[in-house]
TrEMBL record:
Gene3D superfamilies (alphabetical): 3.40.50.2300
Protein name in the entry: Receptor ligand binding region domain-containing protein
GO BP annotation list: signal transduction
Source organism (scientific name): Magallana gigas
Regions that span the bilayer: 6-27, 493-516
Membrane topology designation: Single-pass type I membrane protein
Superkingdom classification of source: Eukaryota
Predominant subcellular localization, coarse grouping: membrane
Domain Receptor ligand binding region: 55-425
Length: 519
């Protein structure tokens, strides 16, 4: 099998080569490619054009000066890139797409990252038969490739969450959940995706899916009393609670759950979301005890409340890869090229965001596909044909991107790995298992020397899968599964009463006989 590897050492090589040559490029006029890069100037959900542009520049430079000669058709090509501010709203994104089409006629729409903007752009690109590559947009509806026929996505879409939940269900023997979700769009979308259970590819369709018994929308401005009422409703029907919330918002809800006795070992909570973290934030916000420790009088209670909590999230870049990428992105942010019409770096440097590595991978995979299509004497401007090639690319070659192995499914969507974290005895969090794709099949893998015997920690010092709470009480909710009482009447009373009656009759008869005899 041919292996295409885009590893950071290669990027470093490209970096020093390009800097050593003072960015002297010799372009051929044989082929020109145009990329419309669509990203918001303002920051939305920790992402902006300024925090992403370094990754794009690294990818463009790697394509141009790729030392492995794996993209031969593009080596002597001119790649022009023009940035369009989509402002993360539908109207701006549509206007930008129309402007790009009329004045630039791009071979690729790269973005926009926000789903609200991507909807219109991807529909227009489908109509124009132009490739559109997304490095963030995760919502369920983008899986409809009859509507979005030229869209390829590189961040794990939300429709992977039901598969993740299926594997957790199988591991812990859970089959029914309640869902609590934040009203903000990214978390509402996660809750909606959990309801959209599809058949797991290449798996037995008779496998039993989980059942969601109820769901509740919450917000940061809700009072503890309102949250308490929600948990009281949950207690009537469920023991396993899925929390589609920002990780650092969990403390408020878990303190209420603890107050209601829901952290004593009979319940489990799964915080699940589509948020992606840089490794820097993983260390400060996720692996640490920041989620429960606020240095107040409730810290001890809060720590106990988090004993039955799992954190389910997408797997970020490893520490060494992230630190190296961050360094190179910083160096590339201020680099220029006459064919790049990109945002000028701000006065205060903005470090790369967590999604920037996926922009890098999206750009390089586009180059791989364009190269393959050119070698077939086909048109890389044909978005439908490029989409078709994308659906089989990772079956034919192994593509290792900055974010790991790139695995695209038959919808042109990336299969991404997930991880599950649990609290350690000292109150910090560690990864206990990964749920990853291998040959388009999801597999569960224990990490950090975990086994079924020590996989998870539960309240009261219990450790191991066998102590996971059942998703239903032994006798059901409200005692609905209590053993039926014997409906046959108790005959003891009948026997005693009958015997007493016989004795009474004999005594009366004897007395009457004696009276008659005396008379």
């Amino acid at each position: 099998m041919m292996i295409l590897q885009w590893r950071l050492p290669m990027v470093m090589w490209s970096f020093f080569l390009i800097y050593g040559m003072c960015f002297i490029f010799v372009f051929s006029t044989k082929t020109e490619f145009r990329i419309a890069w669509m990203a918001p100037k303002k920051e939305y959900y920790n992402l902006s054009a300024y925090s992403s542009v370094g990754a794009l520049k690294i990818a463009l430079s790697a394509i141009r000066r790729n030392p492995t000669n794996r993209i031969q058709s593009l080596h002597n090509s001119t790649i022009k890139v023009r940035w369009y501010d989509t402002d993360c709203n539908a109207k701006s994104a549509l206007a930008a797409a129309v402007d790009a089409k009329s004045k630039f006629d791009p071979h690729l729409f790269l973005g926009p990252p926000c789903s609200v903007g991507m909807k219109g752009v991807a529909l227009l690109a489908s109509q124009w038969k132009t490739p559109v590559f997304g490095w963030v947009s995760q919502e369920e509806e983008f899986q409809d490739k009859k509507m979005y026929s030229t869209l390829v996505r590189f961040l794990g879409p939300l429709n992977r969450f039901p598969n993740v939940m299926f594997h957790l269900q199988s591991l812990f023997k859970w089959s029914q959940f309640s869902v609590v979700y934040d009203k903000r769009d990214p978390y509402r979308a996660v809750a909606e995706a959990l309801y959209e259970k599809k058949s797991i590819e290449n798996m037995d369709s008779s496998m039993n899916w989980y059942n969601i018994v109820n769901s509740f929308k919450v917000s940061n401005d809700m009072s503890d009393k309102q949250i308490e009422e929600i948990f009281r409703q949950i207690k009537k029907y469920s023991r396993i609670v899925v929390m589609a919330l920002p990780w650092l918002d969990m403390r408020k809800y878990m303190l209420v759950a603890h107050k209601l006795g829901m952290s004593d070992g009979d319940y489990a909570f799964l915080c699940i979301h589509g948020d992606l973290y840089t490794y820097d934030r993983m260390e400060t916000d996720v692996f640490s005890d920041l989620v429960w420790r606020k240095n107040d009088s409730y810290d001890s209670i809060a720590k106990d409340a988090f004993e039955p909590v799992f954190h389910v999230m997408m797997k970020p870049l490893e520490k060494t890869h992230w630190n190296l990428f961050k360094k190179i992105a910083s160096d590339f942010t201020s680099s220029t090229n006459p064919n790049w019409n990109l945002p000028e770096p701000p006065e205060e440097y903005i470090p790369p965001d967590a999604y920037a590595p996926y922009l890098y991978d999206a750009t390089l995979v586009w180059a791989i596909l364009a190269d393959k299509i050119l070698k077939e004497n086909k048109n890389p401007h044909d978005g439908e044909y490029m989409f078709l090639k994308a659906t089989t690319l990772t079956d034919e070659v192994e593509v290792n991107g900055l974010t790991g192995k790139v695995n695209l499914d038959n919808h042109g969507d990336r299969n991404l790995n997930f991880q599950v974290l649990d609290m350690t005895e000292n109150g910090t969090f560690e990864s206990i298992l990964t749920i990853k794709y291998q040959n388009k099949m999801m597999q569960v893998e224990f990490v950090n020397n975990k086994t079924e015997e020590n996989l998870s920690r539960w309240p009261n010092g219990k450790v191991g899968i066998k102590y996971a709470p059942p998703d239903e009480p032994i006798y059901g909710f409200d005692g609905k599964k209590c053993p039926e009482q014997d409906e046959q009447p108790d005959r003891t009373f009948i026997y005693v009463f009958s015997a007493g009656g016989v004795v009474f009759v004999v005594v009366v008869a004897t007395i009457l006989y004696c009276i008659l005899k005396l008379s």
